[in-house]
Amino acid sequence: MEPHTPPPEPPPVHPPLAELATEALLTRDYETRPVLFYERLRARYGPVAPVDVLGVPAWLVLGYPQMLDVLRDPRGLWSKRLDSWRARCEGRVPADWPLLPAFEIDSSVFQDGPGLARLRTAWTAGLKPFQDRSQPQARALEAAIRRYADDLITALAGHGRTGTADLAGQYARPLPLMIVNRLLGFPAARGEELLMDMWRVLDAGPDAAEASARLGAAVAEVCAARFAAPAEDLPSYMIAAVPDLTVDELAREMVMLIGLVGDHTGTLIGSTVAEVVIGDSGVRASLSAGMIAEAVNRAAIASPPMANLTFRWPRADVRLGAYRIAAGDPVMLSPAAAHLDPAFTGGRSPDAIYSSRAHLSWGAGAHACIGRELATVITTIAVERLFERFSALSLALPADQLPWRSSPLMRGLRALPVHYELAPGADVPQTPAPAPVPQTPAEPEPAPSPSLVQRFLRALRRDPQEQSR
């Protein structure tokens, strides 16, 4: 007797996405109480919910298994190409939709297939010298990160052994931008101007368009120069790996680097510092490298810098949760929500998760983050230097009053005000100078001096609108 095979479930019947009632994504709860926000959506809709993203309807994937399946894409069903977005092809996406300029940058984030594989080959080879700790470039970069961190700490603590500082605006955010400056090979003489433009672009302020144009031109100039005169920097290594890269292609990837390293890593540093400070009960006295790595992991789970990922579009109709997702519908994956799914937490409180490495903050599948090791090293060193230089750090605000900077994609601390006390003997950094790399760079080393750091911080303090975002 043949085993009985149950009939397949009938496809769900509901109006198309454009006609469904949607939930606003950017709400007060989304910014201040994301756990409640995502859990309310999950209770009402299940693992997938129809949401409004700044006026554009989209599907938000809340479930961990569903998100992992889309990321891994075993059937080759999902596209990241913008021309897969049916509503945009039909002219139904407003030309002034705030996220459209970022989506229209034809970088590897919005590539599929051979085009994506070619660019990721360049990225893998370009980052390898900086991520492989057996390489002199990686060791030199780590020493430079420590020096930059010490320069910033010296600048923010310049008024005495005790005081108050904003570890987000004065430390966590500028530090990765200095590292980007070095990776791109920008001349030191232009460092201050470019760092400020990076900040303006990432904050999407009123002068972001002008700053983006200046930054794009500067990046393109450096990329073009590297084809003629390679140096020991990321663009040069990428060109060596994929010689048929064009200047435009390389410049688009480097602009993306500014956002991913500058914003993503800066946000992760701030979240990790908060994780340690808020949870401190004598832990810092024995804070080891392994414990810092665990704090980074916990912060990535509890507050993933990219709370929601950029859109994907199915090439054919597909069922997700209780809904039929039509071909070309925009789908936004939410690591922040997936990390709250009982399928991930095992029914425990998110606060009880300490060691899971199955989280999705770094993505998975064809678009998994290639720079994960670099971002982790930057964050680990940044946190390590703070707790080596300061004997005491405590929040200057109650934890539930910390201000958050939210967008449809990113979520991080807007400010991290702390009271600090320098450790004995910590006034003068003891960081050794970076080890030399095998060849002499074509450009002067773009390592900012303490005076550059101080000018950078003074410029931020002069512009309260910059600090408030």
TrEMBL record:
<dbReference type="Pfam" id="PF00067">
    <property type="entry name" value="p450"/>
</dbReference>
<keyword id="KW-0479">Metal-binding</keyword>
<dbReference type="InterPro" id="IPR017972">
    <property type="entry name" value="Cyt_P450_CS"/>
</dbReference>
<feature type="region of interest" description="Disordered">
    <location>
        <begin position="424"/>
        <end position="452"/>
    </location>
</feature>
<dbReference type="InterPro" id="IPR001128">
    <property type="entry name" value="Cyt_P450"/>
</dbReference>
<comment type="similarity">
    <text>Belongs to the cytochrome P450 family.</text>
</comment>
<dbReference type="InterPro" id="IPR036396">
    <property type="entry name" value="Cyt_P450_sf"/>
</dbReference>
<keyword id="KW-0349">Heme</keyword>
<protein>
    <submittedName>
        <fullName>Cytochrome P450</fullName>
    </submittedName>
</protein>
<dbReference type="InterPro" id="IPR002397">
    <property type="entry name" value="Cyt_P450_B"/>
</dbReference>
<keyword id="KW-0503">Monooxygenase</keyword>
<feature type="compositionally biased region" description="Pro residues">
    <location>
        <begin position="431"/>
        <end position="449"/>
    </location>
</feature>
<keyword id="KW-0560">Oxidoreductase</keyword>
<keyword id="KW-0408">Iron</keyword>
